Structure formats: C-alpha cells, structure tokens
Amino acid sequence: MALLAVVVVLTPLSAAWDWPPIVSIVLLSTTLVLLLFVGQTVIFLLRLVAADRRAAGRRRPMGSATKTVGELEDEAVSIDQPSGEELTESPLGDAPPTDEPRDGGVRE
Description:
The protein is an all-alpha fold and 108 residues long. 57% of the residues lie in helices and 0% in strands. The protein has a domain at 1-56.
C-alpha cells in the first residue's frame, strides 16, 4: 500500500515535470496494477472479518442498553411459534398459498 501511495503521487507529477513519456506510462500502468491487487486484498480481508463475525452469532452492540431489532424479532417469533409447529401464515400477514386458482375460475 505504501508503494501504491508513492506511485499515485508520482504519476501526475511525472507529467507535470515533463519526464519522458515512457516513465509516465510505466507509472500509470503500475498504478492500475497496484490498485487491482490492493483492492482485491482489502475485499478479501473484509470478507474474512465478516465471516468471523457471522460465525460468532448475533452480537449486541457494546454501547447499547436496548435490544437490537434482531433480538426483538427473535423474541416475537419464539413467543408466536411454539417449537415444532409449522408456519401457516407468513410473518408479513400474507395468506398461505393454496391449490385454488386466484381468479376464481375452474381448474382444468
């Protein structure tokens, strides 16, 4: 990342200082390649951190005295649904799917 920072600064300065065009081309190409590798590395590391947090389960924010939305939803589901009972209606209040046609017509 330090090399990327140096190259990002030198690339426009090479054009302003009238360095040979081949030097500017090499610096620009190096900038693009380094941006690719640094960007992919950052994305990889962020995914590792996210996977580690997902594996730890749902966590309460450190400074929060109130329950999170996820905790409230978990409580609502556990109160509404006794264990072992299947969901007959969706949580959004939609009617469960039926075998009857929606238009009221006769099924062939």
